[in-house]
Amino acid sequence: MSQNAQPEKALTNVTAPSHWTAGHIRAINSDSIETAPAFGPDDFSAVGNKIDIWDAWPVQDADGHPSLISHDEVLWMALAAPRFDDPEERHGHARIYLLLRKGKEWINLGPLMPDGFSPGSREWSGSAVLGADRRTLVLYFTATGLRGESVITFTQRMFSTRATLVKDDTGYHFENWRDLTEVIPLKPDWYMPSDAGNGKIGTIKAFRDPGYFFDPATGRHYLFFAASKAFSHSAFNGVVGAAFCDDPSRDEWHVMPPLVSADELNNELERPHVVLHKGLYYLFWSTQAHVFNPEGPTGPTGLYGMVASALTGDWKPVNGSGLVFANPLDAPKQAYSWLVMPDLKVTSFADQWGPVELADGERRFGGTFAPDIQLWLDGDRAGLIK
To answer: Which residue from 378, 289, 281 is spatially nearest to 336, judged by alpha carbons?
Structure first.
C-alpha cells in the first residue's frame, strides 16, 4: 500500500479533531496556575563552550524509555548551532547534534548526520528509536528549507532514515546512513503547506516535529507532529497531526486527519508527544504566549496536554484548560520545549531565564538543558511534584 493510501479502518476509528478552544483558556485560574520552579545560572551548565542547544530527545527504545547504551550511558539528540550574540539567529543554522549523557555529565559528540545528507538547509526536531539489535537506529526528523538554497525558506518536510550505531576509539557515532524517505507527505485536504506563512517568529506555519510512539494496546506505531489546519479562516490555526504504521519494518506510514485543533486560538502546538500512564493516553505539546490569538484569551508559555482512553480520541484538556504547568510568573520565558518521559520526568532547555527585561547587550539565553522536573498524572488532572 502506498504512503498516500488511507485504509478505511484508520479513518472510521478516529474521533477528530478534538478542539482546544478559547473557553478552555478562560478556565485557567490565574491565582492558582501550576508553575515550574525558578532557576538561575548556577542551576545549569553549557554543553560545550561554543554551541547552544535547545529542542532535545533521547535515543529511545520502542516503549519510549531512553535506550541504555551501558549501565550509565544514554545517547541524546538536540538541535544545536554556534553561539550567537542574538540567540534567534540559531534557528537559521540548526543541525541535529549527538550528545552522550554519562551519569550527570553531558558530552557533545558533534553533528549527527554527515554534511550534505539532509535534504534541507537546516534540521529541526524529531525523535529516534534504537532497534532490538541495539545497533540499528531509525531517526525521524524535520528537514527545513532546501539544501543549497541561497535565501532561507521555511518549507518543512518530515523524513525517516536509518543508521548503524558504532563504538570505537573515538567514542559513539552513527554510520552507514541510508533509506532517506519523506515519511509523512503533505495531505493538503487536512494540512496547510508549511511555506504558507512567513519567516516572522510566531507566524511560521508548521509541518514538523515527528514524535514516535508505539501503542502496546494495538501493536500500531504512530508519529505525532505539529501542523497547521488547511483552509482555515484564521492566522491562528495550529493542529496536532498524526500518522500510523502497522508494518513491523515501519516503512509504510499512513497520514491521518488532525487529532487536536486549536483553530482561531493558537498558531503552534509544538513537539506533540504521547505518554501512556495507568491505561490513559496523554498528548502533550509546548506553546508560547506570543503565538496565541491576540484577540484573546491568551495562555502562558508552558506545557499543555489532553487525555483520552484511546489514541483516536476523544481528547479532553487536562485540568479543564489544557495547561499542565507554566513558567514562573516572574520568569515567563525561562524554559521551553518540554518533553515528558514515560517515568513522567520532564526535560526542557533553558531559554531566557530570569526577568523578561534585558539590559543593553545582555544575553540571558541558557542554550542548554534546564533542570529536570517531575510530573504527576491522575486521570484528567496533572501537576508538578515539587
So the answer is: 289
Q: Is 39 helix (H, G, I), strand (E, B) or coil?
A: coil
Structural domain including 317 reads 8-385
φ/ψ of 263, rounded to 5, equals -55, 130
Is residue 1, in this structure, part of any structural domain at all?
A: no
Does an H or E element contain 284, and which?
strand 280-287
DSSP 63: T
| Residue 44: all three cell numbers together | 545549569
Q: Give the residue ranges of the annotated binding site.
A: 54, 125
For residue 168, being part of any structural domain is answered with yes
| Predicted structure pTM score | 0.94
**Annotated binding-site positions for substrate:** 54, 125
Q: Is residue 204 part of a domain?
A: yes
| Tally of domains in the chain | 1
Q: Are strands 18-19 and 254-261 parallel, antiparallel or unpaired?
A: parallel
Q: What is the CATH number of the domain that holds 136?
A: 2.115.10.20
Residues 182 and 159 sit within 8 Å (Cβ to Cβ): yes
> How far is 377 from 374, CA to CA, in rounded Å?
10
Residue closest to 235 by CA, chosen among 200, 201, 205: 205
Please say whether the beta carbons of 75 and 358 come within 8 A: no
- Size of the chain, expressed as the number of residues it contains: 386
CB 261 within 8 A of CB 18: yes
Tens of each residue's pLDDT in the chain, 386 residues = 334 444 434 444 555 699 999 999 999 988 889 999 999 999 999 997 799 999 999 999 999 999 999 889 999 999 999 999 899 999 999 999 999 999 889 999 999 999 999 999 999 999 999 999 999 999 999 999 999 999 999 999 999 999 999 999 889 999 999 999 999 999 999 999 998 766 677 789 999 999 999 999 999 999 999 999 999 999 999 999 999 999 988 999 999 999 999 999 999 999 999 999 999 999 999 999 999 999 989 999 999 999 999 998 899 999 999 999 999 999 999 999 999 999 999 999 999 999 888 777 778 999 999 999 999 999 999 999 98
Is there a domain that residue 105 lies in? yes
Q: Which residues pair with 308 in a beta bridge?
A: 281
Q: How far apart are CA 203 and CA 65, in angstroms?
A: 33
Return d(Cα 122, Cα 193) in angstroms, integer: 18
